[in-house]
Write a structure and sequence with these properties.
single chain; alpha+beta; four-stranded mixed β-sheet; 4 strands; 15% strand; globular; DCC_oxidoreductase; DCC1-like; Thiol-disulfide oxidoreductase DCC family protein
């Protein structure tokens, strides 16, 4: 398990984000797990993720990144111009996370919520833990 993206499996926006990443992760670097899953919960405990982080987490080896830092680090390995967003890491984290938190706080209201985690198609199922 090198690079694992933990996401809110009940969030429509998070589900769309996972699908977006899968389509642009041509090197197949990322695996995925819902935060609500047993694997997700195990990784949260292993990396001492604060309880208030519940939307997007990147576990990269022994390092764990949250919020905007996680999203921008993922962009680094995507195809086309999405790599350029990685440069935004130069913006101080409090500023980046301010905007990230607005979306995270309103994600259910703006994009909706599922009753359960999405079921991946057979071709991408192997990328889910």
């Amino acid at each position: 398990m090198n690079k694992v993206i933990l996401f809110d499996g009940e969030c429509n926006f998070c589900d769309s984000s996972v699908q977006f990443i899968i389509k642009r992760d041509k090197k197949v670097l990322y695996k995925f797990a819902a935060i609500q899953s047993d694997v997700g919960q195990e990784l949260l405990r292993k990396h001492n993720v604060p309880a208030n982080i519940d939307s997007f987490i990147l576990v990269d080896g022994e390092q764990c990144h949250y919020k905007s830092s996680a999203a921008l680090r993922v962009c680094k390995n995507l195809t086309t111009g999405w790599k350029l967003l990685y440069c935004l890491l130069i913006v101080p984290r409090p500023i980046r996370d301010y905007f990230y938190n607005i979306v995270a706080k309103n994600r259910y209201k703006w994009f909706g919520k599922r009753d359960s985690c999405m079921l991946p198609s057979p071709e991408v199922k192997k990328r889910f833990l």
